[in-house]
Specification:
The complex is a heterodimer of chains A (132) and B (182). Chain A is α+β, with helices and mostly antiparallel strands. Helix content of chain A is 42%, strand content 16%. Chain A has a single domain, classed as Glutaredoxin. Chain A has 4 helices and 5 strands, in the order H-E-H-H-E-E-E-H-E. In chain A, strands 2-1-3-4-5 form a 5-stranded mixed beta sheet, with helices on one face. Chain A starts with 6 loop residues before the first helix and ends in a 10-residue tail after the last strand. Chain B contains 6 helices and 6 strands, in the order H-E-E-H-H-E-E-H-E-E-H-H. With 182 residues, chain B is an alpha+beta fold. The chains are: A alpha+beta (132), B alpha+beta (182). At the A-B interface, helix 1, helix 2, helix 3 and strand 2 of A face helix 1, helix 4, strand 6, helix 5 and helix 6 of B.
């Protein structure tokens, strides 16, 4: 039975990354990172949320943009899947709908890098008394 | 849902919502029995009898954001469409096991799909949850236990980009080696 194919490789990676982690921890704080939550419910997965999430993770890493990409449950916008909630540091979260790879690229290039919102935002249509 | 890897990603979300600490995903391709079985077992909150009886009802959900819960019912339908079976066992406080068995060579049997992508999304965004993934084919077995990975990595998080890249290559190579069905 094959378990982890090469533990020696994984251990070597651990040593290499360890040093870099120490430098990173000194500078990072979660609120200073871009946060992207990808809705990963049945409707989202059927509409392509898996590819959307994978794209964000790989493209943000490729461009060296510090971000946290996580999956979340149904946000209730099943008609507009795949949906993401984007929080840029210092700003209110924004929900985008119909986020395929093309839209994801646009969001990265414009909203994340240039702070310019793009089409496709799902607006908040109500505020509860408690959070007005 | 186009393929089995998407169903797995979907059903595991239930385990995550049930606050499971350990989720086991097993795929077995048995050409002698002409079966492909997929089982997902967790140690989450589990379900009582009433909830269990409703679990595969597409108009039943424990969520409040919508009125339908399609994940389990879609998987059940897919398995039964091939002449296979579907079962779900659960106990409150102990966990849940979902098992779908497909007829391997049936025309309607969905492809396994992009399993590496599914596993990476789950493993690299798992927080404190651990995964055990096992895949058995006629050409061999592959097993990945994230507890072993965490132990080797010590304090390096699983979502570190270099760890993710390593796991991606490791999964791809191992799954290719055992020649999982397409």
């Amino acid at each position: 039975m094959n378990k982890i194919k090469n533990l020696a490789d994984l251990k070597k990676l651990q040593s290499e990354v360890q040093a870099k982690i120490k430098l990173r921890e000194n500078g990072d704080n979660p609120e200073s990172l871009v946060q992207i939550k990808v809705s990963m419910a049945t409707c989202g997965i059927a509409s392509g949320a898996k590819e959307t999430m994978t794209y964000f993770i790989e493209e943000l890493d490729h461009q060296g943009i510090d971000a946290v990409v996580t999956q979340t449950g149904c946000m209730g916008y099943c008609y507009a899947e795949p949906t993401i909630e984007l929080t840029v540091p210092g700003q209110q979260p924004v929900v985008y709908g119909f986020v395929n790879k093309v839209k994801a690229r646009e969001i990265i290039e414009k909203h994340i890098k240039l702070n310019e919102m793009v089409d496709g935002i799902i607006p908040v249509t109500y505020l509860l008394i408690d959070n007005q | 849902m186009k393929d089995i890897s998407m169903h797995i990603l979907d059903i595991v979300q239930n385990s995550i919502r049930a606050k499971a600490k350990l989720i086991e995903i097993e795929i077995a391709e048995r050409s002698d029995d002409n079966q492909l079985s997929v089982s997902i077992t967790d140690d989450g909150t589990g379900m009582g009898l009433e909830q269990l009886q409703q679990a595969t009802n597409p108009f039943y959900t424990s969520r409040s954001t919508r009125k339908v819960g399609l994940g389990l019912s879609l998987l059940k339908q897919k398995a039964e469409m091939t002449g296979g079976t579907f079962s779900i066992k659960s106990e409150l406080g102990k966990g849940t096991e979902v098992k779908a068995v497909f007829v391997l060579n049936h025309f309607d049997r969905p492809i396994i799909g992009e399993l590496t992508g599914t596993l990476l999304i789950l493993i690299c965004n798992s927080g404190e949850t651990d995964y055990v993934f096992k895949h058995q084919t006629a050409n061999g077995n592959f097993e990945l236990d994230t507890r072993d990975v965490r132990q080797t990595l010590e304090n390096i998080p699983l979502n570190h980009p270099e760890v993710r890249l390593f796991l991606k290559k490791m999964l791809q190579e191992n799954l290719e080696q055992i020649q999982i069905s397409k």
